[in-house]
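Hi,

Apologies if this is the wrong queue. I'm a grad student, and the batch job for Anaerobic nitric oxide reductase transcription regulator NorR from Sulfoacidibacillus ferrooxidans produced an output file that my downstream script rejects. I'm not sure whether the problem is my script or the file. Here is the sequence I used:
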Amino acid sequence: MDDVERQKHFYQTIFNLSYDGIVGVDNDGRIIIINEAGANFLGISISEATKGNIATINPKASLLRVLADQSFHHDEIRRLESHTAIINRAPVYYNDELIGAVSSMRDITELQQYEETIRRNISQQGLQAKWTLSHLVAESEPMQHLLRLAHRYAAVDSTLLLQGESGTGKEMLAQGIHSESRRSKGPFVALNYAAVPETLRQLLPLTLCLEVGACH
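Support response: The file is valid. Your script probably expects a header line. Output copied below for reference.
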C-alpha cells in the first residue's frame, strides 16, 4: 500500500467513525461521499445513497441551494423524522472552481431530552431565587457600576452571560437579576456545568444553563 492509499484509508476510517452525519455531492447533486451517520439521517443505506442524486432523495435539500448560490449555512436547526439536528453546509472549491458541496449534521435529540428533563425537574421542585439585587452591598465604584448594569440588564429579555472566577458571587448576581426580571415568578436553578456528562457538555449551549440559572 503506497503513501496515498495509506492516507486515504486513514481519513476514511476517521470519516466513518464520526458521530456527525456527513454528505458530499458533486456539481450535479450526485452523492459522492457519505458516512453511516449521514445515511441514517437521510433514512437510506450508503449503497443507495451513492447511487442516487440528492434531489431525488430529498427534493428540498438545502445542498441544492448551496450549489446554486454558493452560500455557507451555519448552525441551522432542522427536524429530520424523529431527530433534531444542527446542520452546517458549505460549497467545495478546487483551484477557485466549484466542484460540489458538503453538509455535516449533528444529532442533538439526546441533548434536547436532557434539557426537557432538567426543565421538568425545575418545575416539580419549584426552585426560587433567594437573593435580590438589594441584598448585594457595593461600596467600590466598580461594584456599584456592576449593580447599575445588573438593574439595567434585568429589564432586557435576552440571554445574559456572567463571567468571573469561582467564588466571586456570579450565582448571587444571577439570582438578583432573575429576581428583578419579568421572569421573577418563574423557577431558578443553578446548573453545575461540570457535572454534565462530557458527551453532552460538548453540545450543550451555554444559553441553556444561563436561561435556567448560572453556570459555575
